[in-house]
């Protein structure tokens, strides 16, 4: 979920002409700061979608959690949307490795890549 939310925020900032590294630093210091921002955004800036974990496995794990939420009656709307994004990435990109390929899907939707010099 953080991969999708952070990517959306950075793509929006980039579209508005903001420096994505400065925006990333601001996000890291905000209430939304996270280990994901600290450890994974550099990979996104390089176009590295972390090809160490299959996209199909990401979907499988997210579907498992979605099923557990449904069984227990727990609210899971945001994570269900994230699951749908990963499913779409799997459909669009195929069963390839890249746990951050949801970012590539969002880049495609935005019409520009999330890159920083």
Hey, roughly how much beta strand do the residues contain?
A: under 5%
Please trace the helix and strand order, writing H or E for each element.
HHHHHH
**What is the residue-averaged pLDDT?**
94
What is the overall shape? Answer: globular
Task: Report what the structure shows.
The protein is 69% helix and 0% strand. It is an all-alpha fold and 117 residues long. The chain has helices spanning 2-15, 20-29, 35-46, 55-72, 77-93, 101-110.
SSE topology sketch:
Layout: H1 2-15, H2 20-29, H3 35-46, H4 55-72, H5 77-93, H6 101-110
Key traits:
single chain, 117 residues, mainly alpha, globular
Describe the structure concisely.
By secondary structure, the protein is an all-alpha fold.
